[in-house]
Design brief:
By secondary structure, the protein is mainly alpha-helical. 34% of the residues lie in helices and 4% in strands.
Length: 145
């Protein structure tokens, strides 16, 4: 049985930006590379509170600070630091502190698969909150599983 997912489409310019920071642009499983830890953590913290796919969120809210391919260390740092300040100090949510390390995204996973992945507790996990998911939406014409 083939894996089905709703693919995200990107312009050539977006693909050029994303290819520097994401290991896969066409599938639902990918890793983040060449980004500061503070940016990766903030990106996932923001991801848990939006219905957007992670790569689209990066393009929409973090990538504007990309000046050139060699400036990876500065990508999104100012935004990330503001987000951490708000989450830590205004909301008192310290769960995002766990988000340093390897960042691997598995998008469009079913609730059953999500629980199976998390069951072993071998890592820290952050899910997109279901309160931000539209269950009446049909990505690519199909119901979410």
């Amino acid at each position: 049985m083939a894996l089905w997912f709703a693919p995200e489409t990107y312009t050539e310019e977006e693909r050029a930006i994303l290819s520097r920071y994401f290991t896969n642009l066409d599938g639902p499983v990918f890793a983040l590379v060449n980004l500061p830890e503070v940016v990766k953590g903030a990106l996932f913290a923001r991801y848990s509170r939006t219905a957007k796919p992670l790569r689209r969120l990066f393009l929409d809210e973090f990538a504007e600070q990309v000046e050139d391919a060699g400036a990876a260390a500065a990508v999104g740092v100012a935004r990330a630091e503001r987000l951490y300040d708000r989450v830590f100090f205004e909301y008192g949510d310290d769960s995002v502190a766990q988000l340093g390390g390897v960042h691997l995204a598995c998008e469009q996973a079913s609730q059953l698969l999500t629980k199976a992945i998390e069951w072993g507790r071998l890592a820290a996990y952050l899910e997109q909150s279901t309160r931000y998911m539209r269950y009446d939406d049909r990505p690519a014409g199909r119901w979410r599983v």
